[in-house]
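Readers of this paper often ask what the protein records in our data store actually look like. This encoding replaces a full spatial description with a residue-level series of whole-number codes. For reference, a complete record is included directly beneath this paragraph.
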Amino acid sequence: MSTDRRSLLEESLAAIQRLQTRLDASESARHEPIAIVGAACRYPGGAETPDALWAMLRDGIDAVTEVPADRWNVDQFYDPNPAAPGKMITRRAGLGS
């Protein structure tokens, strides 16, 4: 085998080994454990704790409601035409407390 060919094969093998090392490290990182050290919630429907959020999800509660008048005047911003500039096409929202 010529020296050039041997050198090329050695370089290729070294590159494969480097890539394998990177792949192994990446795969290992995907399985690293994580720790949740804190959680806070402020979701629609009054879910202000992780337990309350879980209960809403578990029970299938839909917290999207009509936009209340004390939030904004929905009639001022609503238009059923999606192409209407500066308007929204819904009268409902998921609003926190």
Notes: The chain has three helices and two strands. Strands lie at 65-66, 92-93. Residues 3-30 form the longest helix (28 residues). The longest strand covers residues 65-66.
